[in-house]
Design a protein that fits this description.
This protein is mainly α and about 450 residues long. The chain folds into four domains: about 5-35, no CATH class; about 45-155, no CATH class; about 170-365, hpI Integrase, Chain A, CATH 1.10.443.10; about 370-410, no CATH class. Helices cover about 45% and strands about 10% of the residues. Strand 1 and strand 2 (about 15) form a beta hairpin. The radius of gyration is 31 Å and the shape is globular. The termini are far apart.
Length: about 450
């Protein structure tokens, strides 16, 4: 029988030799610790920082080529003092332009400065925060920004705030009708799963789909059949020191018999049943679909290889192209559509917030989009001879919309009646009387 050899330590603790018993602690090397000590930055943030510093360097080189006396130092953010940084940043925000020489909108200028500040902090941990309005040394920079933004607003330079476009019900119906999404073949099924996951779980278009794992969905039968989505990590909850007390997002979707084959539960069950065993072992969610249906119906529809990053990034865009639907939709449109539909249905903000994972109501409300019917209802209120409520005007518009959606042949269909001993003459729209029956 193998025994452990023990020896004493200076603090009275007992140390067990590592070769005798499985080590309790996972000791790290200096290299391991150095890697963990480097702050991890999201890929999009790294890209944004590089974009900002590239713009600044382009401006610096162009300005230095024209000026003999005033030269912007290359190491401005490493060795430059607050006065020098303030001096050159005032000129930068006034002189920087797009690649086509057009003016940047205010928000883009601020994003450029934010990226430059991140770069400055990377090369010099003691770099001053020139975006801090309390800093006296940078008050002139803030005054320049304030006046510049007012001029841009007055001159009609459009704000570049972009929101993901909402997917209309008509577009969604067409995606199903054209079998771009559906259950008929591997590709259609994968697209259906992606579509419903993005909309119903309110997933962000990029990283959250790429990082999605099979283990994040748990099937439950009580109190009724449903799937529980468990968030691992997201933009709003990275799990670091700032978020370690924050609860992860949990979203529940229940079976809906009225949805038939379009029910999210049914789609997920079918998708899971068609996955190869290796997919479950490796725990990636989106598997690459086979090009053709297997001859054996019991064989998997998917290969044990994850869908590529680029393919996932353009999934919704490709759906629209395949269904020949106009519009510039991105994967993020699914999240925006899910939240917007809940707003329009009058779902309480607290429930929507739990589904989207937003920290604040202000951020959540960016998804509260207005509809054409709502704007038409407002116009009717303002032009009406008698006072009407918003709900009355909106109901009137919705009723008209529903009437227009009814096919003409149904609108003109006669009510059902029973006739005896009568002669009927049948006509169609192309000819005169065609046939007489008794």
């Amino acid at each position: 029988m193998e025994t452990s050899r023990k020896r004493g330590s200076a603090d009275g603790a007992t140390i067990v030799d590592s070769h005798c018993k499985k080590q309790r602690f996972d000791f790290k090397t200096t290299e391991d610790i150095n890697k963990m000590s480097i702050k991890k930055v999201p890929t999009t943030t790294t890209y944004s920082t590089q974009w900002a510093i590239n713009n600044f360097d382009s401006w610096r080189l162009a300005r230095n080529s024209l000026s003999v006396e005033e030269k912007i130092p290359e190491n401005l953010f490493i060795n430059g003092n607050e006065e020098e940084v303030n001096f050159w940043l005032m000129r930068y925000v006034l002189e920087t332009r797009k690649s086509n020489s057009e003016l940047f909108p205010p928000r883009t200028i601020y994003l450029l400065l934010s990226g430059i500040l991140r770069h400055a902090r990377q090369v010099n941990t003691h770099a001053p925060n020139f975006l801090d309005k309390i800093k006296i040394k940078f008050q002139s920079l803030h005054a320049v920004l304030d006046n510049l933004f007012k001029e841009l607003q007055k001159d009609g330079v459009p704000k570049d705030t972009k929101h993901a476009e909402i997917i209309s019900k008509e577009d969604e119906i067409k995606l199903w009708e054209t079998k771009v999404i559906g259950t008929e073949n591997p590709k259609a099924l994968l697209r259906a799963v992606f579509y419903l996951n993005g909309k119903n779980f309110c997933l962000r278009g990029g990283q959250e789909h790429r990082d999605l794992k099979l283990s994040q969905l748990v099937k439950c039968t009580s109190p009724s059949l449903h799937y529980l989505y468990l968030e691992n990590s997201s933009k709003n909850n990275l799990g670091g020191l700032a978020h370690f007390k924050q609860e992860a997002k949990r979203v529940t979707i229940y079976s809906n018999s009225k949805a038939g084959d379009k029910c999210h539960i049914h789609i997920l069950d079918l998708y899971f049943s068609k996955l190869p065993p290796d997919t479950w072992k490796k725990d990636y969610f989106y598997a690459r679909p086979l090009p053709n249906m297997p001859s054996d119906p019991d064989k998997p529809w998917f290969s044990p290889v994850p869908v590529g990053k680029n393919m996932l990034a353009t999934t919704l865009k490709n759906m629209y192209s395949k269904a020949q639907i106009d519009g510039r939709k991105t994967n993020h449109s699914l999240r925006a559509t899910g939240a917007s539909e809940l707003f329009q249905a009058g779902v309480p903000e607290k429930i929507i917030k739990e589904r989207t994972g937003h920290h604040s109501l202000e951020a959540l409300r960016t998804y509260e989009r207005t509809t054409t019917e709502q704007h038409q209802a407002v116009s009717d209120i303002l032009s009406a001879e008698k006072k009407i409520t918003f709900q009355q005007a909106l109901h009137s518009k919705q009723s008209i919309s529903q009437q227009h959606s009814i096919p003409i042949h149904i609108q003109h269909m006669a009510p059902c009646q029973t006739y005896h001993n009568c002669t009927f003459n049948f006509y169609n729209s192309d000819t005169t009387k065609t046939k007489q029956r008794e």
